[in-house]
Fold:
Amino acid sequence: MMKEQVLISEDTVEINAKLREIERSVVPQLEIVKKAFEKLSIGTLTNSRLKSLLFDDWRILRSELAKEMTELNDNVMLDQVVQKQIKSSLGILGNKLQEFSESGSAYLKYYISIDEAGKFFVPDESMKELKDMSRVYVTSAKGLELCDAHKAAAKALNDFYTLAKEDMTANISCLINLFDIGEAGTVIPAEQDYERYVYAQKTGKKKGR
Structure:
């Protein structure tokens, strides 16, 4: 059974900043990587190949790609020219991957994929993960209990503020001054002359009559 999860806050500015960074920095760099990969002439850059390039050990991957390029070559025994071309192509790809890994945007590689048309995008699941980096949730039973109690306290305070706001400034301190800590260690109302409030002096039917 999935735990209840309540969203407390969301930094939309930070979320949008990361999405802009993907659009303006990550995608352009990966486009360069894609072009370098396509020059290997071993097919298009699929999503599984992209994940291998971004996350697998380059030394192992380089060997696998070289083997694949060799097998696709018509020559049974590759001459030095072809071998040099393979080495050069793999070197260029490795350099582009290294440049991306050393960029400040490389941490966002976990959220990017490529579709069948060769377009980079952020899938729904990754989008949620990306947003969760800038969100605060409450999930524990006691945390949810605190959240509910806090909301109830805010509602009760708002009920009073609605009646007394003509005597208050738009500052949270004026609300804090309405309360004190009693001898029992509980929150109690600070002494007030309620009859001096504008609301109490208004003419008209009293509540409940």
Summary: The mean pLDDT is 90. Residues 112 and 122 are 5 Å apart (CA to CA). Residues 140-189 form one domain. The chain has two domains: 6-133, 140-189.
